[in-house]
């Protein structure tokens, strides 16, 4: 048996083709359509600015959207429950489907109450996530680099506590504010990406 190492390269299975060629070609193709990224980014930026002004309206829109998703999810749960009605999980799927449908109908029928419930749920999730990150940091605090996890957990925990402390008065604006903030960041990101693709496309020509 010949144990000598082969002199042929193994990291490039296709001779004459760079492993980064697909990535480069994809970026070049995207660079030709940089205007779409900028246009979509500007649209999201405008929507985010509108949301920052009309926070209550954006809160209600987000609640109605979540309510519609929960209603659709509940119907799908019931359909799945009846498909497996001979199995032991039939009751769990049925109960969860009815719960989703009830929550979705509540959000659609009374968006204000739905906003209050979702805001309280958001605060609880942030508190739990922040506490979990702090617990992970405490158990690994002797290792290097884990201080960032502690900082992240502390910020998340404080955000959850602030939301819970201001509930239910803040439920009229917090969801709309977060939606507007997300649209603003997405818009800025897409505009910057489009500009970077435009510069790369101009250089490649």
UniProtKB/TrEMBL annotation:
<feature type="transmembrane region" description="Helical">
    <location>
        <begin position="115"/>
        <end position="136"/>
    </location>
</feature>
<protein>
    <recommendedName>
        <fullName>HdeD family acid-resistance protein</fullName>
    </recommendedName>
</protein>
<dbReference type="InterPro" id="IPR005325">
    <property type="entry name" value="DUF308_memb"/>
</dbReference>
<feature type="transmembrane region" description="Helical">
    <location>
        <begin position="173"/>
        <end position="197"/>
    </location>
</feature>
<dbReference type="GO" id="GO:0005886">
    <property type="term" value="C:plasma membrane"/>
</dbReference>
<feature type="transmembrane region" description="Helical">
    <location>
        <begin position="60"/>
        <end position="78"/>
    </location>
</feature>
<keyword id="KW-1133">Transmembrane helix</keyword>
<feature type="transmembrane region" description="Helical">
    <location>
        <begin position="148"/>
        <end position="167"/>
    </location>
</feature>
<dbReference type="Pfam" id="PF03729">
    <property type="entry name" value="DUF308"/>
</dbReference>
<keyword id="KW-0812">Transmembrane</keyword>
<keyword id="KW-0472">Membrane</keyword>
<feature type="transmembrane region" description="Helical">
    <location>
        <begin position="90"/>
        <end position="109"/>
    </location>
</feature>
<dbReference type="InterPro" id="IPR052712">
    <property type="entry name" value="Acid_resist_chaperone_HdeD"/>
</dbReference>
<feature type="transmembrane region" description="Helical">
    <location>
        <begin position="34"/>
        <end position="54"/>
    </location>
</feature>
């Amino acid at each position: 048996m010949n144990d000598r190492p082969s002199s042929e390269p193994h990291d490039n299975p296709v001779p004459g083709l760079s492993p980064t060629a697909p990535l480069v070609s994809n970026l070049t193709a995207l660079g030709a359509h940089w205007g779409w990224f900028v246009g979509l980014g500007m649209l999201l930026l405008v929507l985010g600015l509108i949301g920052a002004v009309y926070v209550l309206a954006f809160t209600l829109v987000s609640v109605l959207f979540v309510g519609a998703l929960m209603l659709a999810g509940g119907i799908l749960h019931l359909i799945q429950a009846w498909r497996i009605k001979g199995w032991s999980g039939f009751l769990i799927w049925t109960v969860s489907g009815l719960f989703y449908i009830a929550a979705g109908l509540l959000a659609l029928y009374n968006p204000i109450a739905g906003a209050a419930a979702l805001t309280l749920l958001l605060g609880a999730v942030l508190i739990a996530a922040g506490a979990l990150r702090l617990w992970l940091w405490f158990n690994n605090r002797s290792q290097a680099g884990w201080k960032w996890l502690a900082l992240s957990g502390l910020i998340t925990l404080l955000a959850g506590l602030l939301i819970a402390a201001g509930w239910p008065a803040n439920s009229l604006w917090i969801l709309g504010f977060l939606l507007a903030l997300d649209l603003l960041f997405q818009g800025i990101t897409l505009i910057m990406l489009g500009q970077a693709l435009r510069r790369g496309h101009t250089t490649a020509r």
